[in-house]
Design brief:
By secondary structure, the protein is mostly helical. Helices cover about 60% and strands about 10% of the residues. It is built from 6 helices and 3 strands; from the N terminus they run H-H-H-E-H-H-E-E-H. Strand 2 and strand 3 form a beta hairpin.
């Protein structure tokens, strides 16, 4: 599963049908949830697509694409797709960490290239 997270759709060519939904998910922010209180809560809480749609302010397409993303930790409970709150928070944390690491790698490569070019 590490390969799914490591694919850099911003700097390498990837199929548009793969890159477009990935970029949509990468632009979503979890600013609608009280993270600190919910993350440390021992309660198990599940969100359905409909509940995330109501609470987040995201469009229906964004929520649908989020649940289709292979990286997203959703599961089927009965006939509904759900996500546990701690897994949801962990997903957004890992997504942000991965994007930041990729950004730093490219900044480092750019700095090395610039340094070599100026010598």
């Amino acid at each position: 599963m590490a390969g799914i997270w490591e694919t850099d759709v911003y700097r390498y060519y990837t199929e548009p049908s793969y890159a477009r939904p990935r970029k949509i998910v990468d632009n979503l922010k979890l600013d609608w949830l009280d993270l600190k209180e919910r993350y440390y809560s021992p309660e198990v809480e599940f969100f359905t697509k409909e509940e995330i749609l109501e609470r987040s302010g995201w469009s229906e397409d964004e929520v649908r694409i989020l649940f289709y993303d292979r990286r997203f930790p959703s599961c089927n409970y009965g006939r509904k797709e759900v996500v546990e709150i701690h897994a949801l928070i962990g997903f957004f944390e890992k997504k942000e960490r991965t994007l930041r690491r990729q950004e730093l790698e490219w900044e480092t490569r750019y700095d090395i290239f610039t340094h070599l070019r100026n010598e």
